[in-house]
Design brief:
mainly alpha, elongated
Amino acid sequence: MDQNPYQPPRARIDSRNREPGSIPKAVVTGAVIDIGGTMLGAIVITIIYAMLLGMQGYSAAQIDQVLTQFERWSFFGLLLTGMGMAMSTLGGYQCAIVANRTTYLAPGILSLVSVTFGAVMSDGQAPLQELLIMSAATVAAILGGASFHIRKLVEPLTRPSDQE
């Protein structure tokens, strides 16, 4: 034995909860954050943008037209898209935390729910190519957010430099 008898024994102590969580609960939590957060954020951004347009002298009819007929790649469209992607990332992360598993089952189901909700809400108004691009970005954001937590679960607790 190479261990010093005066040194305390080393043990792998893990303070993280290793019990797997409920997948339905994880999906619902992630969906509330992703879909609900995106809707709430869009409302807040739209109100602020409408107020800014009003201060610039736009009439109510002009503001309504600007807010309902904006280009996806305009500043307003990119701001809404960025906020939606941030909410999808946060929803995927929280979904993975609640599921507490090393697999992507719960975030994958959340991706399916979120993309389906987005397609239903678009109601055929978005071109198919744009809908597919936004759906792929949503899936990437959710799975990317989940990977932040899943990586913590699979990484070793002790680093090689800690072992002698």
